[in-house]
Amino acid sequence: MSKLTLKTEGNTHVVVTRRFAAPPEAVYRAHTDPNLIQKWLLGPEGWTMPVCVNDARPGGKIRYEWTNDKGRGFHLTGEYLELEPYGRIVHVERMHLPDPTPDNHVETRFDADGTGTLMTMRMTLPDAQTRATMLATGMERGMEASYVRLDGMI
Amino acid sequence: MDKMLHLDAAFAALADPTRRAILARLAKGEATVGELAEPFEMTQPAISQHLKVLEDAGLVERRMDGTKRPRRLAKNGIDAMDQWLAMLRKALQKNYDRLDEVLAGMVPPKIKRGEKR
Fold first, then answer.
1. Which among B14, B23, B88 is the nearest to A142, CB-wise?
2. What is the dihedral of CA A107, A67, A26, A8, to 10 degrees?
3. Which of B71, B85, B116 best tests the A interface by mutation, with the highest count of A CBs <10 A?
4. Which of A146, B49, B63, B116 has a 20 to 30 Å separation from A72 between CA atoms?
5. Mind telling me how many Å the CA of A37 is from chain B's nearest CA?
6. Domain B2-74's class?
7. Does the complex come out with an ipTM higher than 0.85?
């Protein structure tokens, strides 16, 4: 039930879906409460998020800073555009590697699915080239990790 | 580092719909430039240009067959890309597996107050 799907859509979108056992209220909170975000949004083993700013209101700032046990680090900044508790979040984000990547516009929906939640995250990149670059670089966090099922493409 | 650059070129090559269509065609079997140009409203030189991008990215290779140079998918390049994507997918899955645990540890507010949903 928890199977992740990742696919590209058109030339500039990436869509990720995932089911969770908890209801939308809980999944929404886990995406907007800094204390909860710091527990899971970490990417590969060995990374932590010492700084987590998440001001969940329209215009509110997002800042995540990651570091690993080898002293490497990078960060992400973003802004909230729309929040509809507990069903929908729209925000923009960019990675700093250290140069900022083009803005990734992200709409995340939390739909009730039985007693659980179906999350659908739809990313929109400015152009096909940016999406391609996003697929190839800056992936440590894993959330930016967009995935193209090669079966669907070739 | 070289491998990284190579992957970058591979993903950049995939950003173009014509090149994706060429790969889709080659996934069914090898083809000459003329055969590849046929379904597109494009000249052979235009198709050759796209093929060059795909070859430079390590996704397509050419075979010698007399005077013909049929193109085919380059297994190594495709495999490297697949492995990279599998790694990324794993990192993403790891996040959500952790989120499952976080959610399991959260007490639903309504139940906490002893109410039924």
1. B88
2. 30
3. B85
4. A146
5. 9
6. mainly alpha
7. no
Name the region of B109 (left: φ>0; alpha: ψ -120 to 50; beta: rest): alpha
Domains of chain A: 5-148 (3.30.530.20)
Q: Does A46 touch chain B (CB under 8 A)?
A: no
pTM flag (> 0.80): no
Say which DSSP state A144 is in.
Answer: S
Q: How many Å lie between the alpha carbon of B38 and the closest alpha carbon of chain A?
A: 18
Q: Where are the domains of chain B?
A: 2-74
A135 and B11 within 8 Å at the Cβ level: the answer is: yes
Nearest Cα residue to A63 out of A76, A49, A48: A76
